[in-house]
Amino acid sequence: MQVARTIDAVRRCVAAARGAGKCVGLVPTMGALHVGHVSLIDAAVAHCDFVVVSIFVNPTQFGPNEDLAKYPRPFEKDVALCEESGADVVFAPSPEEMYGGGGVTWVTVEKLTAPLCGRSRPTHFRGVTTVCTKLFNIVGPDVAFFGQKDAQQAIVIKRMVADLNMPLEIVVCPTVREADGLAVSSRNRYLSERERRDATALYRSLETCREMIEGGAKDAGEIRAAMVAVLEEVPALAIEYVSLVDAETLEEAEQVAGHVLVAVAARLGPARLIDNIRIQAPALH
Amino acid sequence: MQVARTIDAVRRCVAAARGAGKCVGLVPTMGALHVGHVSLIDAAVAHCDFVVVSIFVNPTQFGPNEDLAKYPRPFEKDVALCEESGADVVFAPSPEEMYGGGGVTWVTVEKLTAPLCGRSRPTHFRGVTTVCTKLFNIVGPDVAFFGQKDAQQAIVIKRMVADLNMPLEIVVCPTVREADGLAVSSRNRYLSERERRDATALYRSLETCREMIEGGAKDAGEIRAAMVAVLEEVPALAIEYVSLVDAETLEEAEQVAGHVLVAVAARLGPARLIDNIRIQAPALH
User: Tens of pLDDT along B225-235?
Assistant: First the structure.
């Protein structure tokens, strides 16, 4: 496995693979890799002949008061994990390599970036869509792999790819969870032992929702209230949103029907945690 | 020469050419082709093995009160001209083919799009950058060709390509002029015989500027005043801007030095006309 620090270097690696007729997969990450990322690399290795993992803590997707400086960067451990998982190249550029010219160009997706995480992170998604556009243009993958854990991000990226006719396929892989249901996240390492236990409330609220819908509940307000009650059992949790939205348009529905995204976000001590599930609810009659 | 009406069709043509190891050139146009466009196709044929000319009157780069509906669309004549000029494919999609899904994604270039034409056409350049991104992603050219006539557009596109690491080269070709200096433009056909004669004032104002700088003039205000005087000799011309700016940053300079873009825009009857020249002025001491 090679580690490419520059755009030219990774392009040379990919050009060689493409010259050999290989299908190229990209797993874009910010490093601090965990079993969730490994599941994305596994999917890429299964789908593609040549797998690039990018490791780049992208400054443009962090807000001014967010955790850019303290975001974990265990680079050597990350590289070892990529190699063990069967990646062919790690692309790990510096911020200067990615934004050295002082970029003035943004890729923005309207509407889909306004609700959910967009409300508290107004510049986050344009940072994500811009850096993903750059990574797609640098690597030129046939397929890129994202996690369902960041549900809104996956929906926004898929929409950007479709709207701009980007010549690649987006594959969204299932959320990986701990034994107690907590969605695996690089930010879980910010949590104390007590907070780590409290954090399971997010998943429990989602399971409450699933059970209610499976039991025939349709009123989004009623389901939402039950979810909030589960979260409020943990006083340390500061709820940011609890939303039931159309899984494609991200519009809130009063009645639950069709493909629904149920998403929660909350602050817990030093961490901001998000989680979600997708549910196929019966159509309304 | 083939005419491709769909994204899939043009992609098939280009894939076949690329499979044969050909270098692919793209000339993006809105049709109503004239000798200026032909010079771009000539450059593409000279540089590349396989040339795609796109003909698409892009609605997103027209403002609400601009000439989208009446913009000329002499399609059969355009196709014949492309064939005569040695193009391999004309890509002529419908608005539905390009924006059928109701796009919510924009590519925007900040700063460079604010001055000059950006002042009177605030949504124009995001339409241009978004459709060019789409065309680049659809066709996947090695080189794309633009005219110096639309100087700000060329600078904005080059910056977008650099900022987003788009894997292609931008070539900017010289402005083609009529015998009396008028820059060739699809919008010249909006002019009456009288207006056509009046329109030469734009070029004369640029020549005045060139002569002054060659004669040692350095004060931008003084040069600008002389240019305005030339334009004001034609009462029918409504000046929109007369600007001397840095040719890379588009910032106005008080003293003329280095690489300067001199650009003018004016309304004349039903037409909005623009023209420019680039001048390498001596450095300031």
Answer: 999 999 999 99
Residue A55 sits in a domain whose CATH number is 3.40.50.620
My answer on whether A197 and A99 are in the same domain is: no
Assess whether B37 carries a catalytic annotation.
yes
Same domain, A156 and A201: no
B137 → closest Cβ in A104, A111, A166: A166
Shared-domain flag, residues A206 and A103: no
Q: How far is B116 from chain A (nearest CA, A)?
A: 17
pLDDT at residue A221 greater than cutoff 90: yes
Average pLDDT over residues A103-119: 97
Chain A contact present for B108, CB below 8 A:
yes
Contact present, B227 and B209 (Cβ < 8 Å): yes
Determine which of A131, A165, A248 to mutate to test the interface with B (most B C-beta atoms within 10 Å): A165
Q: Is residue A103 part of a domain?
A: yes
From B135's Cα to the closest Cα of chain A, the distance in A is 8
- Same domain? For A149 and A192 the reply is no
Rounded CA separation B188/B13 (Å)? 34
Q: Dmax of chain B from CA atoms?
A: 57
Q: Which domain holds residue B90?
A: 2-173
Q: Do A167 and A230 share a domain, yes or no?
A: no
**Mean pLDDT taken over chain B:** 97
pLDDT-based confidence at A282, cuts 50/70/90? confident
Q: Which value does ipTM take for this structure?
A: 0.96
Summarised one tens digit per residue, pLDDT across range A24-56 is 999 999 999 999 999 999 999 999 999 999 999
Looking at every residue in chain A, the average pLDDT score rounds to 97
Chain A residues 11-30 with a CB less than 8 Å from chain B: 11
Using an 8 Å CB-CB cutoff, list chain A residues near B112: 104
Size of interface A-B (CB pairs under 8 A): 72
Most B CBs within 10 A among A6, A60, A107, A126, hence the mutation to make, goes to A107
Beta carbons of B159 and A133 less than 8 Å apart: no
Which one is predicted more confidently, A281 or A80? A80
Q: Domain tally for chain A?
A: 2
Beta-carbon contacts of residue B111 (< 8 Å; ≥ 6 apart): A104, B249, B250
Contacts of A249 (CB under 8 A, 6+ apart): A111, A112
Residue of chain B nearest A102, judged by CA positions: B163
Residues of A in contact with B133 (CB under 8 A): 164
Same domain, B58 and B139: yes
Q: Write out chain B residues lying below 8 Å of A107, CB-based.
A: 105-107, 164
Looking at the complex, report in whole angstroms how far the Cα of residue A225 sits from the nearest Cα belonging to chain B.
Answer: 32
For residue A28, which amino acid is it?
P
Contacts 24+ apart (CB under 8 A), A10-15: A10/A52, A10/A89, A10/A91, A10/A138, A10/A139, A11/A138, A11/A139, A11/A140, A11/B167, A13/A52, A13/A88, A13/A89, A14/A50, A14/A52, A14/A89, A14/A139, A14/A140
Q: What is the pLDDT of residues A240-274, one digit of tens each?
A: 999 999 999 999 989 999 999 999 999 999 999 99
